[in-house]
Amino acid sequence: MKIIDGKQLAQTIKNEIKEEVDQIRAEGGNIPHLAAVLVGDNPASRSYVRNKVRSCEFVGFESTLIQKDAGISEEELLEIIDELNENEDIDGFIVQLPLPDHIDETKVTLAIDPKKDVDGFHPVNFGRMAQGLDCFLPATPYGILQMLERYKIDTSGKHCVVIGRSNIVGTPMSILLSRKANPGNCTVTLTHSRTKDLGAEILRADIIVAAIGIPNFVGSDMVKEGAVVIDVGINRVEDETRKSGYRLVGDVDFDAVADKASYITPVPGGVGPMTVTSLLMNTLKASRLKQ
Ligand code: NAD
């Protein structure tokens, strides 16, 4: 069994991006600029956004953080998005989800200019992705593709079972892995909460992508010997031995599954750090496209 070290791979990719930015700076070119909008004080969202801003600083991007309290109206938020769409200094931006209940996330996603949609959530980017056209790929699936590619994991002709059908992880992952591309060319089964005999479906997989948000859901009895296991889940479970009172676990029971898997991603330190590097790669791309 090999561990896919997302933390280390993310650092390698960040170093590569930093080199490119140094080069752009040396040539007097435009430094990529990412903006992030954070609404409310959800601790997980704050920590994700902080991490994104820190990563921007590391690679030498410019970054702008716009923080608004949870009481902001939908109209005010849409105005901020319009300004970011118009602002020529900003190459790309994200609005950290989830948003408070009184704000319609779909409306917000649709308001973002697809050319600045570095999270890859806008239907224009999603549609282009589905047709194999150039686009901003959604950050988490893009990070997983990077892992498969850099670890030289053969996906062609393999049976992949994706668990979870969200718009940001499961559904785009199923599309990307079924595309005629490398990584890709998989036969994909997309499973979800209504799937019958989910355990039997997962057991047929050469590659498992788990994105459901249930701690340790995938146990050893569901995993075929030699399967590649990609764990997207980030779940907080109580842990009195930790100062914080909790620890993070994935959707896969790592200790039970690791011996059976040929490759496995840990949580934390697996898919999570790769999501941030995808965002940086998309921002670099947005900046280049603007030239
Ligand atoms: P979501 O809640 O939007 O979707 C969950 C999906 O799981 C749904 O499609 C649902 O049908 C399916 N599901 C729920 N219960 C199920 C069950 N018992 N059996 C089969 N399917 C079931 O979740 P999401 O936004 O895709 O996130 C999933 C997990 O991934 C969460 O833990 C989230 O924190 C994590 N996540 C991690 C990253 C990262 O960067 N590593 C990024 C996004 C999400």
Order of strands, main sheet, comes to: 1-11-8-7-5-6
Largest sheet, if any? 6 strands, parallel
> For the CA atoms, what is the radius of gyration?
19 Å
SSE string, helices as H and strands as E: EHEHEHEHHHEHEHEEEEHEH
Straight-line N-to-C gap:
44 Å
DSSP strand tally? 11
Helical content (DSSP H or I, runs of 4+): 40-55%
| Category by helix and strand content | alpha/beta
CATH architecture of the largest domain: 3-Layer(aba) Sandwich
What fold name goes in the CATH topology slot of the largest domain?
A: Rossmann fold
Q: Give a list of the ligands.
A: nicotinamide-adenine-dinucleotide
Task: List the keywords.
alpha/beta, Rossmann fold, single chain, 2 domains, globular, 11 strands, 291 residues, 3-stranded parallel beta sheet
